[in-house]
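Input (structure):
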């Protein structure tokens, strides 16, 4: 089905999220003749692209500003939902697609403010918040996800286990599991061939790391649900056992979620000469290039991109037996999938990998050989096919897309609000 003139509105919590994961989908839609806009909150603090950086906003894709809503304040969500409803009425999309739980919830709220126009409403959960254990917070998250999903025409998740959890909660709303490995990763960027051995050794030397040092890397938000605290404590136990190890932490803390570390433990990181904290990085491939092992013992994922990026670079990974993580790392082949989250287990696995050069080389080779399954182009192609199917079957869902004008004329009038 042709997408000529069809209008796709992506809704994401921040520009960072769009630029990191979704530009491939947007650019493919435009290549096929469609128009794309992205409704997004402000960039995360410290995550703004530098002038000339590879993460600059793509040409030809409109950016529709939203107030900050990721922090979860009811008033902030209400303001952002009202604004998104205005964007929908002025930009007149055929498809509205929210990514990540906060944006799906926002899109569900915005349907009311937009007057329920006849278009396709989609929501993709990149890992269910309400599935990571019990407790009041998880119960609230589950109820929010359930309510938002029921307001969608189509829901997407990244693994079969999330579908099994969510489907009974939302009745007849269809759930699509992407045939790709989640959103995948950029195989051109995350290619070890870009970093010759001599360049990797030079980079290590510049950081004060010897060729013999066993370098662990943690890539991601510094949150307890991603196993940041267990990774740090596992590294400490590894060093206490006499292993010459270093830890590179790529990413920043998250104000919404605790790290799991005490203030004293955080202070100790600053005093440890074997810990390198890089902060947020748009391109993490140079840091993976100097690593021997990636740590991501996360208990709540959809399909963890940082693990894919690590394996694509030939860096074996240590993770835990949780949904998404066990779909990416092949236990004993290109990393370790631990049965439970514990610093002791992380330290033992790291010690085994660090002490056996042949095993490490075998895992590195296996990771590189299997990197093709992470190609992000597969995700973009699968997503475009789903869009086309939904538009083709819109009448069966009671949606009259012809009543949602998508002609390219009067673009200036519809975009006035986005520039205000």
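Output (sequence):
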């Amino acid at each position: 089905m042709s997408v000529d003139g069809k209008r796709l509105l992506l809704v994401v919590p921040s520009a960072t999220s769009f630029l990191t994961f979704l530009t491939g989908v947007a650019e493919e839609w435009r290549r096929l003749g469609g128009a794309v806009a992205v409704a997004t909150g402000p960039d995360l603090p410290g995550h703004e692209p530098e002038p000339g950086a590879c993460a600059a906003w793509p040409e030809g894709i409109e950016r529709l500003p939203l107030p900050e809503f990721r922090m979860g304040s009811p008033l902030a969500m209400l303001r952002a939902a009202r604004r998104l409803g205005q964007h929908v009425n002025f930009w007149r999309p055929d498809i509205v697609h929210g990514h990540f739980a906060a944006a799906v919830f926002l899109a569900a709220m915005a349907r009311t403010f937009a007057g329920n126009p006849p278009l396709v409403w989609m929501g993709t959960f990149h890992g269910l918040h309400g599935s990571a254990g019990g407790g009041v917070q998880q119960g609230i998250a589950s109820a929010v996800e359930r309510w938002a999903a029921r307001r969608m025409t189509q829901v997407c998740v990244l693994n079969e286990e999330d579908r099994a959890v969510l489907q009974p909660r939302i009745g007849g709303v269809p759930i699509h599991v992407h045939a790709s490995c989640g959103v995948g990763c950029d195989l051109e960027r995350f290619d070890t061939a870009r970093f010759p051995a001599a360049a990797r050794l030079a980079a290590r030397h510049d950081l004060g790391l010897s060729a013999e040092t066993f370098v662990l890397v943690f890539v991601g938000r510094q949150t307890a649900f991603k196993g940041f605290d267990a990774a740090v404590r596992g590294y400490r136990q590894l060093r206490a056992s006499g292993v010459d190890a270093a830890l590179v932490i790529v990413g920043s803390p998250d104000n919404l979620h605790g790290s799991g570390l005490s203030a004293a433990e955080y202070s100790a990181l600053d005093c440890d000469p074997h810990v390198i904290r890089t902060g947020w990085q748009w391109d993490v491939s140079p840091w993976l290039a100097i690593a021997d092992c990636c740590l991501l013992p996360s208990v709540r994922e959809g399909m963890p991109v940082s693990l894919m990026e690590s394996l694509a670079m030939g860096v074996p990974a240590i993770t835990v037996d949780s949904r998404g993580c066990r779909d990416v790392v092949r236990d004993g082949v290109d990393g370790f999938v631990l049965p439970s989250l514990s610093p002791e287990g992380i330290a033992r696995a790291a010690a085994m990998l660090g002490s056996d050069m042949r095993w490490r080389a075998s895992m590195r080779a296996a990771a590189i050989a299997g990197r093709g399954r992470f190609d992000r182009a597969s995700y973009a192609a699968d997503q475009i096919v789903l869009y086309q199917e939904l538009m083709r079957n819109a009448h069966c869902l009671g949606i009259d897309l012809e009543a949602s004008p998508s002609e390219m004329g009067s673009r200036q009038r519809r975009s006035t609000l986005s520039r205000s």
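Notes: The two ends are 35 Å apart (CA to CA). The mean pLDDT is 90.
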